[in-house]
Amino acid sequence: MQRTITTRYKHQFRTALLQRAHQQQDLQLHHLKQQLEQRSHLFIVGFGTVLGAILAMFIAYHLSNIWSGYLIVAVLPLLVAYGLRKVYVHTLSHTTEEDF
């Protein structure tokens, strides 16, 4: 009986330690993401804007309605730049040195 109680407490202790370590890793990841969000990442934003502008011009050229073409040309580059920046920040925060 004593052995099963000791084993149970060891298991609970290990589980508590693993949960604490996991919470600490989550906190570090959240802090890293906040730091990366504060940076501008000008190259990624510029690249996304140029890519979005090319895509928007291609789509707008093939549309017959003038107003929807202007809307796409105005909004699509910003959306592509924002999306590309979010993907870049996510990739940076989830890559470790062992991945290289």
Note the topology.
Blueprint: H1 2-38, H2 42-61, H3 66-94
Highlighted features:
single chain, 100 residues, mainly alpha, 86% helix
How would you characterize the overall build of this protein?
The chain crosses the membrane at residues 42-61, 67-84. The chain is mainly α and 100 residues long. It is built from three helices and no strands. Helix 1 (2-38) packs across helix 3 (66-94) and helix 2 (42-61) runs antiparallel to helix 3 (66-94). The longest helix has 37 residues, at 2-38. The model has no long low-confidence stretch (mean pLDDT 81).
Give the SSE order as H and E letters.
HHH
Number of helices: 3
**How many separate domains make up the residues?**
2
Distance between the termini: 50 Å
Helix content range of the residues, please?
over 70%
Structural class given helices, strands, pairing?
Answer: mainly alpha
* Strand-residue proportion: under 5%
Shape: elongated
Gyration radius (Cα, Å) is 24 Å
Low-confidence stretches: none
> Largest sheet, described in full?
none
Write down the overall mean pLDDT.
81
- Extended strand count: 0
